[in-house]
Specification:
The chain has about 575 residues and is mainly beta. Among the domains are: about 90 residues, Immunoglobulins (Immunoglobulin-like); about 40 residues, no CATH class. Helices cover about 5% and strands about 55% of the residues. The strands form 14 sheets. A 7-stranded antiparallel β-sheet has the order 17-16-47-46-45-44-51, with no helix packed on it. Strands 2-9-8-4-6 form a 5-stranded mixed β-sheet, with no helix packed on it. A hairpin with a 4-residue loop joins strand 10 and strand 11.
Length: about 575
Amino acid sequence: MRKSLWLLLSLLGGCRCEQPLQETQTTLRFSPSQLELGERYVGARLSFLVTLTLDGRAPCEVQLTGLTAPLRVPVSTLELSPATSANVEVLLEPVTEGPVSGVLTASGCGVSAELPISATVGGPLPCPADESCAAFAFDPDKGSCTRMPRDEGAPCSSPCLVNALCAAGVCRGAPLSCDDLDPCTIDACGSTGACLHLDAALSCPAPASCGALTCDGGACPPRPLSVLWTAPPTPANRDVFTELMVADDGALFWIERGGSDCTLVSVEGASGQPRFSTTFDCGNHSVEALLGGDAVIFAGGLGRTVHAFETSDGRPRWVVNLFARLEIQPGAGLWISRGVIDGQEVVLSIVTGGQQRLIALSLRDGSIVWQRPVTTDAWGVDGDGEGHFLVDERTTGLHGFLVANRSSTVWRSMSGHQLTASGRAFTNDGIYELISGTRLAPMPPETRFVRFANERVGLRVSGPSYTLGLFDTRTGHAVTEFDRKNPDFFEQALLADDSVLLSTWPGYALERVHADGGVAFHCATGGTFKFGGVTQGRVLGWSNGALTAFATPGVEPGTGWWVFHGNAAAQGRPASP
């Protein structure tokens, strides 16, 4: 018995039982798991690397398939050792515009992996015009324009240089002499190469009172500006609370306010004689006034009402209580931002109950013609008079604008909107076609604000020094810079021919600044001066509370127009260039 037990134990002790081997699974995987190439351009040849990894214990031959033009891989077969990775080159070589998509498949050893690939292909971007010593070409690989200097020493042409040659991509030569030996001219070479002989009075110091700047043998004797007429002064307990509005027949309109009462005032543009004054309850709120056709429209900030008055005699045409008309709940609040006249409609931007909307009222009877929500924080509306509206918007700390019609948003930009004129939107970064959103031209570098514009020239403010200057509204090119700083201290301006009229504060002065920055006249009234505009060859402004018309040299009827936040002299229509 003992012998049998010992034999059994010996057999059991000699057993060495091993665990069965686990089979290692073979897999293929790409890193990254998808390839989004973003926006690319026709003509590019771009290379991208992805990583393909083989997990397993045996080597594997991998086939790469699935891509079609403009996507491809230059190598179609890979030999991968166990538990190793290899880079796979993916090429994008687009020849047409449009979306691109494909799936790269890696297969071998009974397994496979897929890599989705996508891109958007656009056409070449516009480049600046070639310069005398440099050419520009679009580089589709970089997605930008490349400046290529011409050969050193190559002959070049520049309007104000003689014997000019290219040096480091710049045309250099001797300056063209334009000296005419006249002490009362400032001699310079113009942008076309023609000599300019500007009145030296433009560099004379500003006179102490309203006067033109003159030169006599190099001296600067003063010459007073004549006052053509002065309208009855604004009462001491009231303020001029809107811009001056100028009708096509020259009649002038503005609104004065004292407490909760407002008065619509009108005088003859030719003589300053009173036409009418109409007092109404405007509430203790900010004021917005618009002139359109045969009506003056008033809408007031936190006020609930919109008023319309006849331009012929000031009689009230209609009053609309928006709270009641829109059935706004008590306590919801209502804010009316800047508006615009569009044909026979008044289009306003309003905010109520935290919601923004555009609303159009009939000029004829004040009825609501249409309304539509705006999804962002609307700060005012401008328009082209043909059913297209540009709405200032500010969201999450950003300042931009959207262009809309009655039913939908057409396009949107996060550029800072400044103004709309001649079917274009002028922003701090570019000039856009209002209807389509096509970017027509960039603005000059460092443009901070665009204040005024017509079909030829605009006034801009550039930073960081806040310098004033003119720019070409067709090309966006800078024309000149003025030695005028701090634009917050000039209230309004007008473009007239080659010059700009500026109303400045403090100092309460009116200046005419030529395109070269010289001052043609200066008007410091000794009290407050608020620039109103220009009509029938007269410069208008409030001097010590009374609207005054000055005869000014060089400012003729119809030579310019101005736009300021949707209100425009003579309806904002530019004279023909």
